[in-house]
């Protein structure tokens, strides 16, 4: 198979805006799955509502397009009932850390084996460009015309605190690294999180005068650095990318099965 064989081509052209980074994330994900040689019937992809959540409509394997913020709750049900399936959950700022924030921290705490992809474009793009929990201070949005004063979540630090056993960050500029990190996340025997920094030129870029997609991707090139680099020591404002956490702990579904077997024994 090739990466394109995992696409539902009848749903193209896609609905994302020109220059949106979410298509790059889809590309990286499909390449990761193709490299792993997984079959379509092994895979389930779950999403909620938003620009990012459209991704489930474009993949040609089992998919659930669910309620806003509840993607991880649906995915938990899928994994508990069919633990042999490989579950991927694609979320945007809101689905992951606003309305879906409670589900996120508890899925991480339980260490359920699934991959959560947080597509971070720092804005609510589908509903008109409102600020999100990932926007950050000083950002202009339709709901913050005089600049946002709410501090943003750090997806990596939040995931660490909640107990995720694999945590990584990549950007749409570093697409080969993103594919590699996704492969590691998909094969991790526990709850894995990949934060994918993704440009939104239509709302975030335009409102904050960051230019178009090319300029925003250039920003990822110049404002990020590998974990532990000398550049980070010299400039602490740089955003680190790579694998932050990779450890093994008892996985929830396996522990649940052990309990059931014990009770039936």
Secondary-structure blueprint:
Layout: H1 22-36, E1 43-47, E2 62-65, H2 71-81, E3 86-91, H3 93-97, H4 101-110, E4 114-120, H5 155-162, E5 166-171, H6 175-186, E6 191-197, H7 201-207, H8 213-223, E7 224-226, H9 230-234, E8 239-246, H10 252-264
Parallel strand pairs: 1-2, 1-3, 3-4, 4-6, 5-6, 7-8
Antiparallel strand pairs: 5-8
Helix pairs in contact: 1-6
CATH class: Alpha Beta
Number of H- or I-type helical stretches:
10
CATH fold group: Rossmann fold
The CATH homologous superfamily name equals Thiamin diphosphate (ThDP)-binding fold, Pyr/PP domains
Shape: globular
Major sheet details: 8 strands, mixed
H/E series? HEEHEHHEHEHEHHEHEH
The structural class is alpha/beta
Q: What is Rg?
A: 18 Å
The CATH architecture classification is 3-Layer(aba) Sandwich
Q: What proportion strand?
A: 15-25%
Organism: Candidatus Moduliflexus flocculans
Keywords: Oxidoreductase
Domain Thiamine pyrophosphate enzyme TPP-binding: 49-195
GO molecular function: oxidoreductase activity, acting on the aldehyde or oxo group of donors, iron-sulfur protein as acceptor; thiamine pyrophosphate binding
Report on the architecture of this protein.
- This protein is of the alpha/beta class.
- It has one domain: Rossmann fold (3-Layer(aba) Sandwich).
- It has ten helices and eight strands.
- An eight-stranded mixed beta sheet has the order 2-1-3-4-6-5-8-7, sandwiched between helices.
- Strand 7, helix 9 (230-234) and strand 8 (239-246) form a beta-alpha-beta unit.
- Helix 1 packs across helix 6 (175-186).
- The longest helix is centred in the first third of the chain and has 15 residues, at 22-36.
- The termini are far apart.
- The mean pLDDT is 95.
- One of its GO terms (molecular function) is thiamine pyrophosphate binding.
- It comes from Candidatus Moduliflexus flocculans.
- This is Thiamine pyrophosphate protein.
């Amino acid at each position: 198979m090739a990466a394109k064989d995992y696409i539902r081509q009848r749903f193209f052209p896609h609905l994302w805006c020109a220059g949106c980074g979410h298509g790059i994330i889809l590309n990286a994900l499909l390449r990761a799955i193709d490299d792993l040689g997984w079959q379509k019937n092994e895979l389930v992809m779950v999403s909620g509502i938003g620009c990012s959540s459209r991704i489930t409509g474009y993949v040609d394997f089992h998919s659930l397009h669910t309620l806003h913020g509840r993607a991880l709750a649906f995915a938990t049900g899928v994994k508990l009932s069919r633990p042999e399936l490989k579950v991927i959950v694609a979320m945007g700022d809101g689905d992951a850390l606003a309305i879906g924030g409670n589900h996120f921290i508890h899925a991480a705490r339980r260490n359920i084996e699934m991959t959560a992809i947080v597509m971070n474009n720092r804005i609510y793009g589908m509903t008109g460009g409102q600020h999100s929990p990932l926007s950050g201070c000083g950002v202009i949005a339709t709901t913050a015309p005089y600049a946002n004063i709410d501090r943003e979540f750090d997806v990596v630090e939040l995931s660490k605190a909640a107990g995720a056993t694999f945590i990584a960050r990549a950007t749409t500029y570093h697409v080969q690294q993103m594919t590699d990190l996704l492969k590691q996340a998909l094969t991790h025997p526990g709850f894995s999180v990949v934060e994918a920094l993704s440009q939104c030129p239509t709302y975030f870029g335009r409102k904050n005068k960051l230019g178009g997609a090319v300029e925003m991707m250039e920003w990822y090139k110049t404002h990020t650095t590998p974990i532990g680099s000398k550049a980070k020591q010299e400039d602490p404002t740089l955003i680190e990318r790579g694998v932050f956490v990779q450890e093994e702990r008892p996985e929830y579904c396996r522990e649940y099965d052990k309990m059931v077997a014990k009770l039936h024994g």
